[in-house]
Amino acid sequence: MALMPKRIKHRKVQRGRISGNATRGARVVFGEFGLQAVQGGWIPAKTIEAGRIAAQQYLRGEGKLYIRIFPDKPITSIPLETRMGKGKGEPEYWAAVVKPGTILYEVGGTNEDAARLCLARLAHKMPVRVRMVRRRLK
What we know:
By secondary structure, the chain is an alpha+beta fold. The protein is 21% helix and 28% strand. It starts with 32 loop residues before the first strand and ends with a strand.
């Protein structure tokens, strides 16, 4: 089941712009290794779920996966072959807005080679360019 908010204030929102780098959610906090977005974009809820399934199948219970993004933006569209006018379309799916530098997923409790392969499987499914990062020591 794809992620979506329980309640929202507005049913339809404007598209907006993705400008600047991420200031929050840009460090690995929960696990040892993370998948960081290099470019900005929207990540649909189905893509987040597909990444979760791919990572869980690879980890097989050893190690833990943390999802650091949540789809809270409704993306609308109008039906094909519809003329101009008649207002904004209906919400089609939910997406997470990702800025460059945002940590998307984290993996903990496993060695670096396994984490690298797991995050590579995740990176293949993402619609934005990503890279693997590790937790910084204090």
